[in-house]
Amino acid sequence: MERLTLLELNLSVQKAMRDGLPGRFWVTGEISECRLNRNGHCYIELVQKDSDSEKLVAKAQAIIFSFTYRMLRPFFETASGTVLQPGIKVLLNVNVEFHELYGFSLQVHDIDPAYTAGDLAMKKAEIIRRLEKEGVLEMNKQVAEPPVFQRIAVISSETAAGYGDFMDHLVNNEYGFVFYCKLFPALVQGDGAPQSIISALEKIFCRSHHFDAVALIRGGGAQSDLNCFNNYELGLHIAQFPLPVITGIGHERDDTVADCVAFSKQKTPTAVADFFVRHMKTFSDGLDERSGQLTSFALNTINREQKLLSGFVNRCVIVGMRGLSSAERRLDAGQKQMVLSARNILNQSGKKLFLASKRANTSLSFRMQYAADRILTVQSTVKKLVLSVIHSGNVKLDNFAKIIRLHDPRIILKKGYSITRHNAAIVRSADMLNSGDVLETELFNGKINSKLLK
């Protein structure tokens, strides 16, 4: 058997591969590692995984030389919306190389961004389908909307221009509404962004009773920076968050997973600020409308009660006057009846005295004395009867006077009511008045003159 050195063997393999695999090939694979050295060359490790077990079934090293990389990178990032990074699938145009010192590798000449973009879209669609299957996709959209969004937890980078624009737009809104914002700093791009945002959400969750909503915002940037928002774990946390989450991540063409599960998706941070201001304006307009309704109801109630009070006062005066007249008539009748009774008694007594004097043949002096005593007794009885009737009449008169005083308008005025007059006539309805009329309002301790404006 012929003996070969390692170099000879590697050179033989090199020749065999060049002869057996001439030209270029389009190869698909997933990037597991990607690094750029100081010379500008991009080194990639490509892998292929089993579709069921996710185990590695193939692996190869690839290189994009600096000259080619400088042309391919902007073209790929613009067309695909992402950067060359671990975890994405790519379709590469390569030729096979075998170096006697460095071994097997693939030299990249071109890359198809449409393949990667399609794969990313498939991954996003798969995440959305998974969230929908788990029954959480619409959960945040169904969170109870508070009457007003005023206490806002903000997730953003503290130094991001989008955060500054958001705060400026919110604080300096044209209506002068006041908002209370608390920043929870987080990364909003790069591989560490999903976990950073999740950590911020967990901090907000511990203080959720202090806030009405969460604003997840970022400024402008490359479309590739949005891939962190197409993360399953981040989407799951947003979907199940107990407060409404409003996103404004600066992208207008496509919705990310975070946008799909959020309570509301806005285009930019300033659009999120406008969303909160509009919501506050709607709430404020509703308050103004209810205030007007309440004022109208109060005025109508006051007018109605004033009419009822005026009618009640008039009825009290009429009833009092009628009662007083009736009492006076009864008193007059009583007095006349007492006079007649007294006269009848005196007449009867006189007759009895006359008869007695005629029958008195003896003891005239005694009988006359007896008759005189009888007359005095009768006079005393009559006097007492007359005084009793007069006293009873006076008591009744006093009672009626008290009733009349209780219905005296001045007593009613003392209780806090008032009487409004126009041209000396009592105002019983708002329909009696016109704008510009001079009114006189009588209170318990004085009068007030006023002019009706409306």
List its salient traits.
454 residues; alpha/beta; OB fold (Dihydrolipoamide Acetyltransferase, E2P); Rossmann fold; five-stranded parallel beta sheet; 20% strand
Structure, described:
- This protein is an alpha/beta fold.
- The chain has four domains: 6-125, OB fold (Dihydrolipoamide Acetyltransferase, E2P) (Beta Barrel); 135-267, 3-Layer(aba) Sandwich (Rossmann fold), CATH 3.40.50; 293-406; 408-454, no CATH class.
- The protein has helices at residues 6-20, 66-80, 113-133, 161-171, 193-206, 232-239, 257-261, 269-359, 364-406, 409-414; strands at residues 25-36, 42-49, 56-64, 89-99, 103-111, 151-156, 180-185, 213-217, 245-248, 264-266, 419-422, 425-426, 438-443, 446-451.
- It has a five-stranded mixed barrel with strand order 1-2-3-5-4. A five-stranded parallel sheet has the order 7-6-8-9-10.
- Strand 8, helix 6 (232-239) and strand 9 (245-248) form a beta-alpha-beta unit.
- Helix 2 (66-80) packs across helix 3.
- The protein is rod-shaped.
- It starts with 5 loop residues before the first helix and ends with a strand.
- The mean pLDDT is 86.
